[in-house]
Amino acid sequence: MGIDEDSLEYHRQDPPGKLEINTTKPTNTQRDLSLAYSPGVAAPCLEIADDPDEAYSYTAKGNLVGVVSNGSAVLGLGNIGAQASKPVMEGKGVLFKRFADIDVFDIELDQQDPADIVTSVKAMEPTFGGVNLEDIKAPECFEIEERLREEMSIPVFHDDQHGTAIISGAALLNAADVVGKDLADLDIVFSGAGASAIATARFYVSLGAKTENITMCDSSGIITQERADDGDVNEFKQEFARDTQEGTLSDAMADADVFVGLSVGGLVSQEMVRSMAEDPIIFAMANPDPEISYEDAKAARDDTVIMATGRSDYPNQVNNVLGFPFIFRGALDVRATEINEAMKVAAAEALADLARQDVPDAVVKAYGDQPLQFGPEYIIPKPLDPRVLFQVAPAVARAAEESGAARKELDMDRYVERLEARLGKSREMMRVVLNKAKSDPKRVVLAEGEDEKMIRAAAQVIEQGIAHPILLGDRDVIEATADALGLEFDDSLDIVDPEEADLECYADRLHELRKRKGVTRREASELIEDGNYLASVMVEMGDADAMLTGLMHHYPSALRPPLQVIGTAPDADYAAGVYLLTFKNNVVFCADATVNQDPDEAVLAEVTKQTAKLAGRFNVEPRAALLSYSDFGSVDNEGTRKPRNAARQLRSDPEVDFPVDGEMQADTAVVEEMLNGTYSFSDLDEPANVLVFPNLEAGNIGYKLLQRLGGAEAIGPMLVGMDRPVHVLQRGDEVKDIVNLAGVAVVDAQEREKGN
User: Fold this and answer.
1) Transmembrane residues, as ranges (predicted)?
2) How far apart are CA 58 and CA 43, in angstroms?
3) Where does the pLDDT of residue 487 fall: very low under 50, low under 70, confident under 90, or very high at 90 and above?
């Protein structure tokens, strides 16, 4: 099947289309329904009647956008009518929800007269927090947007005009920087003079380009002042009429710094590219076929050619999804009256800045593991980069406040945290820990310091103020890798190179700790050159507060050195590996998933206590269940007695200040109706959030099933029970996992320091 057939099947599958309405409040009982509708609904109605702004408190208005079209300029399909535009408008709603958690009603108006459209949309103002105009042909779209902005007190945004302008504007800011040119000096040529081109040219001027340096071409050639005087162009094109001789697009491109294509494919030849100024910037954004192909533009010259298109299969995709969801998110959250020029500029600058930052591994993987580093091939972020939400939305919200468009002020630090929570519960949970870490950063030694991910993680923990990283490894290799990645550490990073450092004191300490385990002084000198042993001794001696390792080693071999050198805590005889699994509205800690193969009841009890302590670091009140295939003695054998006895031991322990019970089946532990109904005698009044598995096999299988089939996000494994903060990563972990575990380790170190 081809793409058309696949798309038809995709849209036709039951239920047809791409959107549905879900309830956000309980509707399970008669009381729920009486609150949702009659008679209870009268109360919020009266509140809103007294104060219309209360609609933002009692209804979905503040998170609801109307996507409005008359189908007069749909994609490259032309005027196909309102009904035929509906799949596109639903698709726009999907993007709003997927990228910014904004709900959408798509509105297709069977109207052509701009006045009729304005009247219809204006009448719907009580319904929406904002309006996104879509696929309305020029020049009518200019009049419609302008009148609606004047007559409505909610944001109105025509994405076809401004979306491309903002995204390509961000690309232009970075492209000019890469080639060392100033925006005010750029000679810019446009191919196309429709709504998108005119809005983009205007926006470039807002960013710093000069109107007199912009040459716009339509199908008849250069838009000159003479053509404007003769009435050959409409009033909107006249804004960019040049006092110059008439000519073709080819004439206009000679010696130009920038080409902006918003027209049709195949208009530009390699010869036209060769005629441009040194290190040209080419934005060929016609879809699906650009004005000149990526390959042809690159091959046309030997100097730097910065190329952007609207296609996802080439670098630098100018995709409007980088803009509208996040612009509306920021505008809605401050209850903005409009989306003004300051807010659009803020969005472009935030996108440009994000492209200069280290790219998460998950984004790199999503795009085929191609290198993504600021430069000619990467001047704008990728649409699937989750950071766009909490970079662009706050910038837009802040600009709305500063420009007077906001009706509500935000605490920006807390706002960013709320935005991160929209991307998943794991981000919300980690933000708790990372904020604690920032309050008092500690020294974290990264044993595999030559690894690229470790170096990138070190840069991020420094930037975020989470920890003071120490990289172990060859200094030249580390510095060369950092340089290749474009990372500048200055004096903020410590590097311990075994080849240049005096390790005698560490070898002495290792020998002292292990001499009765068969380790000679000579063997200690050899072992200390291993990063895991060196890091372990540094932490044991207090030269570092915590350590991370495991990226380049199997888990058991990475765990062995810290177990031998640091050992378990005074109140623990065993270490254990814990995963935090986050669901949409729930979190659970799963133990043990990495260390103890066949624990007895004493080990299970200890693992439960240590995991409960870990939950506290995430501000979670622990409720522990010791799991089995038996419920409270329904099966009695050696296997079921272990968790049962462990639970009994914990309940009688005066130091245990959290509810715990078992043995119980997994569904009993997490389903409130079962706990409070069938097993109302249980010490757990609410579902458990600490799940202790009976053995390593069950724990590993269980957490992976929850993660893969249950859609949970995993943080970990986090090592508990050690005498000092130590965490062993999994091979293949991403940079964000290293950063997260560094934060957990720092908080652990902080609490140990307070305890001392």
Assistant:
1) none
2) 10
3) confident
**Looking at residues 258-280, what average pLDDT do you find?**
94
The kind and range of the H/E element at 727 are strand 726-728
CA distance 157 to 328: 9
- Residue 492, pLDDT > 80, answer no
86 is catalytic: no
Q: What pLDDT band is residue 23 in, cutting at 50, 70 and 90?
A: confident
* Average pLDDT, rounded, for the chain: 91
For position 756, what pLDDT does the model report?
Answer: 52
Helical axes 324-333 vs 387-403, angle rounded to 10°:
50
CATH 3.40.50.10750 domain extents, the chain: 576-721
591: β partners: 578, 692
Assess if CATH 3.40.50.300 describes domain 576-721: no
92 catalytically annotated: yes
| CATH architecture of the domain formed by 432-566 | 3-Layer(aba) Sandwich (3.40)
**Nearest 5°: CA angle at 608, between 637 and 605?**
50
pTM of the complete model = 0.81
Contacting residues for 556 by C-beta, under 8 A, at least 6 apart: none
3 state DSSP class of 325? helix
The tokens describing 722, both together, are 């050690």
pLDDT at 401: 96
Specify the CATH superfamily of domain 3-154.
Malic enzyme, N-terminal domain (3.40.50.10380)
What residues does CATH 3.40.50.10380 cover in the chain?
Answer: 3-154
pLDDT in tens, 497-521: 998 889 999 999 999 999 999 999 9
| Among 92, 298, 642, 736, the one annotated catalytic | 92
Q: Which one of 10, 37, 58, 515 is the catalytic residue? A: 37
The pLDDT tens digits of the residues spanning 670-721 come to: 988 888 888 888 899 899 999 999 999 999 999 999 888 888 888 888 899 8
CA distance 640 to 629: 8
Cα-atom radius of gyration of the chain, to the nearest Å? 31
- Segments of the chain assigned to CATH 3.40.50.10950: 432-566
Is the backbone peptide bond immediately before 663 cis, with ω within 30 degrees of 0? Answer: yes
Annotation: CATH topology of 162-316 = Rossmann fold (3.40.50)
